[in-house]
Amino acid sequence: MVLKNIIRSAALCLRTWSVFSNVRQGNNTLLGFKHTQCCSYMNWTSASTYKGDETLPGQPVRQYARAVRKKQEFPSQLQDLPPSLLKPEYASIPLAQTVDSVVKKLLTLEFANHSEKLHMKEEQLIAKVRRDENDHSSTEVKVAILTARIRNFQEHLHKHPKDKANKRWMLMSIDSRKKKLKFLRRTRYDAFEKVCQELGITYSIPPEYYRRVTRRWLAKKAFCNKVFKEVQKQKAEQRETERSSD
Question: What whole-number percentage of the chain has pLDDT above 90?
């Protein structure tokens, strides 16, 4: 009895498998209906036999995915740093020049983190604008440090545009650099020109008077202009009357 049940179940499985294999190959006569659009959905496994982006015949094409926009590459300020350059803390040690090549490679910028490379870039910009070798706190040095940090914030925001905290720090650094450049332009104009030329800064002169535009201010300004025109009109009429009386 058990053997008979096993044989019946095996025969049923083979019959079911043969029917579905015929449907997959396009032979739908065993099921008693013709090939329609619904059969094309059942025959989805045969879509891999089509070339390119072709779809099954009679199947609607749906395009849900949007075209991927490639971001433009933002040039990094750390690209000009050679990887074979020693780190600043090891550059002044004479023993670092005579060690093994493997150890020396570990002391170079090739294995340095981002903060160490940024510090190295700050030192390079400071060397271009500082007054002497012992200058570490002048206005020119502060402008060079802020310039390196602002460019670092710009690179980060290009990759992560929704980082509001870094955007706030970048805007604060830009305002601080503007104040220092304005002071340097007023006190030492030759140093101001040198800093802008060496660091590649484009300085735009701020307006002498700036006021935030509000509705109240616009209404007040329009009223004042109207009163001024009315006063000028009355004065002109008064002059004409004086000339006619003379």
Answer: 39
212 located within any domain: no
Label each residue of 29-70 as H, E or C.
CCCCCCCCHHHHHHCHHHHHHCCCCCCCCCCCCCCCCCCCCC
159-178: string of b/e by CB count within 10 Å (b at 16+)?
A: eeeeeeeebeebeebeeebe
Q: How many residues does the chain have?
A: 246
Could you tell me if residue 240 is inside a domain? no
The pLDDT of residue 226 = 96
- Indicate the average pLDDT of the chain: 79
In a domain, 69, yes or no: no
Indicate whether 95 belongs to any domain: no
The pLDDT tens digits for 41-80 are: 444 444 444 444 444 455 555 666 666 677 777 788 888 8
| Separation CA 77–CA 133 (nearest Å) | 24
Which residues form the domain of 28? 1-34
**DSSP state at residue 73:** P
Cα(105)–Cα(4) distance, rounded to whole angstroms? 77
| Number of domains into which the chain is organized | 2
- Whether 195 and 180 have beta carbons less than 8 Å apart is answered as no
